[in-house]
Amino acid sequence: MNTLETRYVTILKDIHDACLSYQRDPNDVRLLAVSKGHHYSSIEQLYALGQRRFGENYLKEAFDKQAHLSELDIEWHYIGSIQSNKTALIAQHFSWVHGVDRLKIAQRLNHQRDNQQPPLNVCLQINLNMEQSKSGIDANDALTLAKEVAALPNLQLRGLMALPQPESDFSAQQKNFAHLRQLRDEINASGLNLDSLSMGMSNDFHAAIAEHSTHLRIGSALFGQRPN
């Protein structure tokens, strides 16, 4: 096996084993391969191995890859904050968005999503630690925004997403993810039905699995370090 295949097989096994350790059904946890900064040939390799979900952060790079890989049945996820002038392109070219944190952005995505396409799957981004350098809404504002987004017909509000501050300690990682899970449960108690938690990356996905993550956003542990 080549290096990419070896990493892929290893990560799949790690996810499977972690699910069993925390009494999770492995089928409920999805690997989202975050391919930003890597050549489209790496996506082709993983696709041949069975991977279908890929995440991108930069639109121009994503469109170049989508053009080269248009024959492949890839589920494209956009990850990160969204500028108003980029909403039309995102609405037209992605199946999922991880990072909506303003009603204005949600309304634009809803308006610009083609009615012939299925609803755009959306996760709200929560700024768990209220870091000024990161996007996301305060947890206290999440329920209001969730209800507003859930009412938009061309969007499907699926869940919550977070980029918590890096922690090396497992219990600290788990505490952050537990906060997001509890917030999702509180929102659902109000009458909504969010089924997704987009949390966990290369260095903390075991703790995310323990707290019921459904989408693991794995980049460097899968593809290696991004080239300069």
Could you explain the architecture of this structure?
The chain is an alpha/beta fold. It is built from nine helices and eight strands. It has an eight-stranded parallel beta sheet. The chain has a single domain (3-223), classed as Alanine racemase (TIM Barrel). The longest helix has 20 residues, at 170-189. Strand 4, helix 5 and strand 5 (120-126) form a beta-alpha-beta unit. It is 41% helix and 18% strand.
Low-confidence stretches: none
Biggest sheet record? 8 strands, parallel
Radius of gyration: 17 Å
Mean pLDDT comes to 95
The count of β-strands is 8
Please identify the structural class as seen in this structure. Answer: alpha/beta
Stated plainly, the CATH topology is called TIM Barrel
SSE topology string: HEHEHEHEHEHEHEHEH
Strand order of the largest sheet: 7-6-5-4-3-2-1-8
CATH architecture term: Alpha-Beta Barrel
List key phrases describing it:
eight-stranded parallel beta sheet; 8 strands; 228 residues; 9 helices; TIM Barrel; alpha/beta; 18% strand
What's this model, at a glance?
The protein is an alpha/beta fold. It contains 9 helices and 8 strands.
